[in-house]
Amino acid sequence: MAEHALKLILEMRRSDVKPNAITLVGILNACSHAGLINDGPGYFNTMINEYGIKPTIEHYGCLVDILCRAGYLEEAKNFIEEMTIRPNQVIWMTLLSGARNHGNTKIGEYAAQHLIELVPETIGGYVFLSNMYAVAGEWDKVSEVREMMKTRGLRKDPGCSSIEHRETIEGYVVLSNMYAVAGEWDKVSKVREMMKTRGLRKDPGCSSIEHREEKAELENQSESWLLPLVSSILKMDVPFAS
After folding, report:
1. Across the strands, what pairs with 168?
2. pLDDT (tens digit, 9 = 90+) per residue, 210-227?
3. Whose CA is closest to 129, among 114, 225, 158?
4. By CB neighbour count within 10 A (0-12 exposed, 13-18 middle, 19+ buried), where does 195 fall?
5. 137's torsion region: left (phi>0), alpha (psi -120 to 50) or beta?
6. Cα gap 149→84, rounded to integer Å
7. pLDDT digit string (tens) for 144-161?
8. CA–CA separation, 109 vs 206, rounded Å?
9. Cα(84)–Cα(127) distance, rounded to whole angstroms?
10. Which pLDDT score, from 0 to 100, does residue 220 have?
11. What is the CA radius of gyration of the chain?
12. Considering only CA atoms, which of 158, 154, 203, 150 is closest in space to residue 178?
C-alpha cells in the first residue's frame, strides 16, 4: 500500500499534477508505515517549498510518527518544539509511545509532562509513562504515577481478552479471576513452560500500574499474570499435556 501511494505521487509530479494537502497526508503516512525516514522529511519540505501548502496538525503528526518509529526521538522532540502550531494530544502521545518503544525514559517523561498538562483527564499518558518506568525497573516512579492518578480520581480499566476453543469463546479480565485458580499452580507452571518452549513471553511493558500491588497478594508472584489465561482454559475443560 505504501509503495503504491509513493508511485502515485511520482506519477503526479511527472504529469505536473499538483497534490493537495490531503494527498500529502497520505504520502507522509505511507512513508511512516514503510519506514522511509529520508523520504518523509523530503516530502514535507517539498510540500511547503514547492507546492506552497501550509502544514496542518495532521502533516506534523505524520512526520513526528516517521521520526519516532525510526528511533529519532531527539529529532522528533526538536521538530515538535519548532512547530508553528500548538502540538495536540496525538503529537505528544506519538512521542511518548516512541520513547517507550525505544526505551528513552528522559524523552518519555518530557512527552508525558506535556500530554498530562494538555489533557490531565486522559488516562493514556499516565499508563504509558507507568509502563515505561516498569520496563526500566523504576518501581518508585511507577508508584508515583499511580498515586498521581489516585489523587486525580483516575483509574485504568483492566485489560481484557478472549480465547476461542471448539466454537466457544471464553473472555477474561486481567486480575478479575486470578483467585479462582489460586490452587492450580501446577497448571500455571505447565502453561508457562509451554509458552517458553514455543518462544513466547510476556511483554514487560504491558503490565498495568495495578499489577505490582496486586501480585504481592498472590502465592506465586512470578506466575500471577498467567492466572486469567489458565482460569479460562480450566472453564473450557481443555486437557493439559502431562
Report:
1. 165
2. 445 444 443 344 444 555
3. 114
4. middle
5. left
6. 32
7. 999 999 898 887 766 666
8. 18
9. 29
10. 42
11. 23
12. 158
Q: Give the separation between CA 232 and CA 235, rounded to whole angstroms.
A: 5
Terminal C-alpha separation, the chain = 46
The three state secondary structure string of 116-170 is HHHCCCCHHHHHHHHHHHHHHCCHHHHHHHHHHHHHCCCCCCCCEEEEEECCEEE
CA 22 to chain centre: 26
What angle, rounded to 10 degrees, do the helices at 123-136 and 89-101 form? 10
Q: How far is CA 169 from CA 67, 159, 176, 209, 233, in A?
A: 40, 17, 17, 28, 11
Q: Which three cell numbers stand for residue 197?
A: 518452549
More confident residue, 150 or 174: 150
DSSP code, position 181: G
* 8 A C-beta contact, residue 127 and residue 208: yes
